[in-house]
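Lecture 7 notes: from sequence to structure.

We start with a single chain of 326 residues. Read the sequence below before looking at the structure.
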Amino acid sequence: MKRAISLLALAAAVVPALVAQTPKRRVAVLDFDYATVHEYVLDLFGHDEDIGKGIADMLVTDLVRNGTYSVIERKQLDRVLQEQNFQQSGRADPTSAVQLARLLGVDAIIIGSITQFGRDDKKLGLGAAGGGVHVGGIGLGGLGRKTAKAVVNIDARIVSTTTAEILGVATGHGESKRSGTTLIGGVATGGGAVGGGFTMGSSNFGGTIIGEATRAAVDSMVGQLVAVAASMPETKVAIKALVADVAGGEIIINVGTSGGVKVGAEYDVMRPGREVRDPATGRVLRRITTRVGTLKITSADEQSATGTLTGGPAQVGDCVGACPNN
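Now the structure, written as tokens:
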């Protein structure tokens, strides 16, 4: 009996340790496409509010809190988007997303679309007599009625960095209903628009019923996205790089995210030795190398990366991953 208890205690200690050693998959969340509900957004906010960016930011916050993924920070994503002149029309395109993901050095990228953002008129029994026009199944009129119900639907996909394969999907649905209010909780004026001052970043947005429905839709997706992590393959791209600088145990190499380097990845560091050539053609048959140690990448940009070396010491000109052909 004591032996069984000891074994259980050992298992309880070992399993969390093994889980902790499993590297987190690194992901980026692209701003969601909202073309389907664009006209309603204009009517509700009074300007072209980027609800796709707002929802992506909310999802990033939820994923960071959950801790299953390592999520790329917003500043780095925005910098790459600006450098690549990425257009809103490509937000839900897997091919465009994968190109960005490779520059960011992530395992996968999360893209998606907002398919409903507003009032569910059918469930409220509002027909043609209820007034207003319909865009994508969403009623724009009658926002000031005594009872208002907001509905938000979101579709998301996790796309592989290497193959553009869809690794998993998630759907988010949120509703909020309240009597004696509008979709934006009394902030609306006349026809329903709120002017230029009300945004998703406003302090009172979360307290409106459209804000509550948005929050619920985003929260409902997190569990589905987290479930995909266990089956997500690690994408380690083979690199051929050279050590460009050595400062103690910190090394800078001449290949970055554009060449497939990812933060957290580990690569062999080797010192090139003599070359064996074909005596007839002069072609290099093989290069004799000596292993120096292991480099773990701690930061990276498009053209270079920095890491810490275990082993060594390294020197400028050492090969990382594999030696370049030239």
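The first helix runs from residue 2 to 21. Keep this in mind for problem set 3.
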